[in-house]
Amino acid sequence: MALSEILTFALVASLLVMSPGPNGVLIARTVPTSGRKAGFANVAGFVTGFYLHGVMAILGISVILVQSATAFSIVKYLGAAYLCWIGLKSLIAAWKGVDAAINVLPAAQKHTLLKAYVDGLLTNALNPKVSMFYLAAFPQFITLGETSAISSFTLVFIHSMINAIWFSAMVLVMSRLTTFTRHERFQRGLKGVTGVVFIGFGAKLASFKPSI
Asked: Domain residues of the chain, as ranges?
């Protein structure tokens, strides 16, 4: 794979990662309520989800999802339902209100980090758009004659690292604003916005149709 192809892919992947989406909203919701470590757990879940989709694309499972309307619809609607479920929970929390001053107990920290990791993983794993991106990108950036698996994993690695760097920076920025973001009024407003945005992403995913 030529350096120019790698740089071009990195540019395309960077624009995709930095565009508004469920990942950024999840980080904005997690860090003020559960702390920096939970935010990094979200990021770890994102990266795991990328590798899962990368393996699926390389093994050809994603092709089945695209070519089989039933398989694609199942994954699509599961992802949409999950996003809407997160949004609904946030709206309920915004309505009820939360005591943002309560600290997470050390005994509960492991559960919080695990939940944050799973949230990050499922947000990506149940989004067939990631597989669609890989299926569209791989043929354009992999040079014929090379070992396709190695080239493909190189692209997945680049994409995942861009994702990790971008959202880790977002975690650090959000954690710097902890004092302000822990105010209950801000928390309720953030959860309300998060709920609406996630439900919107879920509805958008449910209506998504592959173009290839």
From this structure: 23-82+100-183
